[in-house]
């Protein structure tokens, strides 16, 4: 994510063929570029370098689970044309290399198995519900060596997932905000394990995690838990989640931004937004529902109906959540590199007065969770 930092003001902003003035400058450039003045007189520059081709350097991603309480480097998944993938399944014990699964192929489809580690909960109707999750992470090609700035976790036993997106603008100050997002997610896992079984409160979890995170940087956060009351969640910033039922999006968390490309963000201390600024949700779910959580690398590049189409394909083909997440991430990366397609980011930029077209290349995290019932295979 390249976005403004807390406590800054925009001095100059330009996008491809920009015609709208903000502040004191107007320039035509090939990238989204922000010059911001800091309160201490320093100047911060941030750019959204767009439309770059990925390379194939060895990279890694981060995955937290409740077994080891530590970060694990996930195995690499490579697919021609999309760069390197990192995929995580629902427990550290089952993390492994994924198979090639291009979006349009039906051969070698990985089927959903009974081996996923998940705890059963009862819905208000008395049905036993389970959360079966998998994930895929694609760092920005320019950030492969450091692992990018996204982080996520899957707590299978506690029926919880979370994503965080470190704000990329900190790099211009010599700070890797990926440390902040990863520490925030690690402390979230610790806080979840202290919650009553079946009654995880994501808002309380985020409060605890924020107060414990001391790394420099800032980050968005989205934490979701399947509880006795349904799906409980908190979202702060432009990460988020959606719930899909019978091929339709029945819920999508709204984006929280102070201004275009200026997301709500947590930071150590009280310099950023506070966890209490996050939006809290309770969503009734049923067997067959699918949750898709992700960072803005997903939601800036794919519309709801595009994500839903991949989910419908995956469910009908019997794909595991992990493979479905890989397919969604692959399509998001494809859109990010497309200069000639309208995307959610280009729509938002145009609505804000900028002349911009195409996707936005960024770290991309996708977590897919299937809600299953006690009778599901």
From TrEMBL:
E.C. code: 3.1.3.16
UniProt GO molecular function: metal ion binding; protein serine/threonine phosphatase activity
Gene3D superfamilies named among the record's database cross-references: PPM-type phosphatase domain
Name of the top EC class for this enzyme: hydrolase
Cofactor(s) the protein needs: Mn(2+); Mg(2+)
Protein family membership: Belongs to the PP2C family.
Name this protein carries in UniProt: Protein phosphatase
């Amino acid at each position: 994510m390249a976005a403004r930092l807390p406590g800054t003001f925009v001095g100059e902003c330009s996008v491809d063929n920009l015609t709208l003035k903000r502040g004191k400058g107007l320039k035509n450039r090939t990238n989204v570029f922000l010059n911001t003045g800091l309160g201490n007189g320093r100047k911060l520059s941030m750019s959204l370098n767009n439309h770059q081709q990925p390379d194939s350097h060895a990279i890694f991603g981060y995955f937290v689970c409740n077994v080891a309480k530590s970060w694990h480097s996930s195995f690499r998944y490579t697919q021609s044309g999309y760069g390197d993938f990192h995929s995580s399944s629902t427990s550290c014990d089952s993390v492994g290399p994924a198979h090639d699964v291009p979006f349009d192929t039906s051969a070698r489809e990985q089927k959903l198995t009974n081996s996923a580690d998940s705890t059963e909960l009862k819905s208000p109707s008395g049905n036993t519900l389970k959360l079966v999750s998998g994930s895929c992470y694609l760092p920005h090609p320019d950030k492969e060596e450091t692992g990018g700035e996204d982080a996520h976790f899957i707590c299978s036993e506690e029926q919880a997932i979370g994503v965080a997106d470190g704000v990329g603008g900190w790099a211009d100050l010599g700070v890797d905000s990926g440390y902040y997002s990863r520490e925030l997610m690690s402390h979230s896992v610790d806080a979840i394990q202290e919650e009553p079984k079946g009654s995880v409160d994501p808002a309380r979890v985020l409060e605890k995690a924020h107060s414990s995170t001391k790394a420099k940087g800032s980050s968005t956060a989205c934490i979701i838990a399947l509880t006795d009351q349904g799906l409980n969640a908190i979202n702060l910033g432009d990460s988020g989640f959606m719930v899909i039922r019978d091929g339709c999006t029945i819920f999508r968390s709204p984006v929280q931004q102070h201004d275009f490309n200026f997301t709500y963000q947590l930071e150590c201390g009280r310099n950023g937004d506070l966890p209490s600024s996050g939006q809290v949700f309770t969503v009734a779910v049923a067997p067959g529902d699918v949750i898709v959580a992700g960072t803005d690398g997903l939601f800036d590049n794919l519309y709801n109906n595009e994500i839903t189409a991949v989910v419908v394909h995956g469910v009908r083909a019997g794909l595991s959540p992990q493979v479905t997440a890989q397919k969604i991430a692959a399509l998001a990366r494809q859109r990010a590199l497309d200069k000639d397609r309208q995307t959610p980011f280009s729509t938002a930029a145009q609505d804000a007065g900028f002349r911009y077209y195409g996707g936005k290349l960024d770290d991309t995290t996708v977590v897919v969770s299937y809600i299953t019932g006690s009778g599901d295979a």
